[in-house]
Specification:
Number of strands: 4
Shape: elongated
Radius of gyration: 18 Å
Low-confidence stretches: none
Strand content: 25-35%
Oligomer: single chain
Mean pLDDT: 93
């Protein structure tokens, strides 16, 4: 499966499941006059996310296994000045396998950044699908950059 620009990643997403999916249209006077989600600017909206990495036992010395849990929220709290058209609260978790590395901390950081990015991409897709036929139109979550944890 190799081509000039494609190769197998050392990180493989084996399974992804959603533990919680809550997306709700906001009914608030704090919404702008035109809250159409496809053109809504989320840059001033509070976005919360957490990523937890849990190493798992592996029967294979060449592979490391991790469960990665991502919680993504747009809470639209009462004290927030700017609210998004939808309140979002999603939790997803994935089983990820990675080629074994000598430095365990470095391996967990790779899984946190790259695995977390894969999961957030799946959350983005789920939210867009759920809001596609909703009152404010489809919401595409912003692309986020996950920073490695300092060592």
């Amino acid at each position: 499966m190799s081509d000039n620009f494609l190769d197998m990643s050392p990180l493989q997403l084996k399974q992804l499941v959603f533990g919680r999916v809550h997306v709700e249209a906001v009914n608030s006077s704090r919404l702008p006059e035109d809250p159409w989600a496809p053109t809504f600017d989320l840059s001033d909206v509070l976005i919360q996310a957490s990523i937890d990495v849990f190493p798992q036992k592996s029967d294979n010395d060449k592979l490391m296994r991790y469960v990665v849990v991502v919680v993504f929220r747009i809470p639209n709290a009462e004290d927030e000045e700017v609210v998004a058209p939808y309140t979002v609260d999603v939790e997803a978790q994935a089983l990820i396998e990675m080629a074994a590395v000598e430095d365990e901390k470095r391996g967990e950081n790779l899984v946190r950044v790259n695995g977390g990015s894969m999961i957030i991409g799946a959350i983005r897709e789920q939210v867009t699908q759920l809001t596609a036929r909703s009152v404010y139109g489809p919401l595409t979550l912003p692309t986020l950059r996950i920073l490695p944890q300092s060592e």
